[in-house]
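ZP: hey, is the alpha-D-galactopyranose complex queued? I don't see it on the tracker
AM: it wasn't, my bad. submitting now with these inputs:
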Amino acid sequence: MMPTPFETKYGHAPAVTARAPGRVNLIGEHTDYNDGFVLPTAIPQLTTFELSRREDRSVRVHAADLGEDATYELGAERRTDGWIDYVAGVTQELARDGHEIGGFDALVTSDVPRGSGLSSSAALLVALIRGLRELYGFDMDDVQVARLARRAENGLVGANVGIMDQMACSLAGEGEALFLDCRDLSFERVPLPTNADLVVLHSGVEHSHAGGDYNTRRAECERACELLGVGSLRDLGEDDLDRVNAIEEPYARRARHVITENARVLRTVAALRAGDLEEVGRLFLASHASMRDDYEVSVPEVDLIVELASALEDVYGARLTGGGFGGSVVMLARLGRGRAAGESVAAEYARRTGREPKLLTPGE
Ligand code: GLA
């Protein structure tokens, strides 16, 4: 038998293989760090870690997709602004929690595209924590895995993200959405309609969260809270919109997005439960408009995809998913029509922009 890439690299088989999926958020964007509601589901694309123990305290990681290696010593984690920071962030947080681990050899592969708004980072963090949990035999439930992953990302990596992605990659399954209240992390599993197709199309425009725009939005929400005299935007509802609209810009429109988006999540959950796909589609489009106009996290390429998709008879609705500034569009389409709809949007979009879109689901 041909040796596997791990065997070629390290000269022996891995002891543990662990995986985690990427996620697509159906609705509830930029609500998580405002203590609000989100509704993500897992996508078929996965990140996989193969791991084996070492006798010393070295960590060696091979990122097979990039053809790159990185190494460091446990206890000497520091930010390098490279992908190894995700691994070092995890081992640093494990040590802070008192989990005893030794060194390890690792190989990571992923088919969750980076910068696509589909949580390649959280998938990597969760897969690694799952793998180390098995390799070094410590106890940690799925919510604790998500919390630790977030701390690694907020800490050593330095991206001030909310908890949605890590919770989704750790707890969500395909065929169901995780209806999560980010205030207390309580959640319900909402079955996805079996009479519709979920379509995910990457625009080919990559974003970075360590970049400033995401953090600017967070700061703007904090300022809106100060102006409105609340601890969190979750404390406000649609009845408060007159008051919200009266504060200065851009804080009014940022707060308006979060407040109306929370309401749209609740309506989407109700519509999914009632099987009202037309209503889900309308909510997707309203969410997109709010992200584009009030929260200002879309880009023209993503707007074009949403516009092309929503013109199709077979598409109920479409919206930017994830943090924005590029990334992917999620669409709800008629059963059996999602692939063709996604392909036709992708072709027209590529023709008009010269970009390379990628249809991630449904598969062939
Ligand atoms: C990114 C962050 C999440 C969330 C979304 C926007 O994916 O990682 O925490 O804030 O953006 O909904």
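AM: back. The chain has a mean pLDDT of 97.
ZP: great, adding it to the tracker
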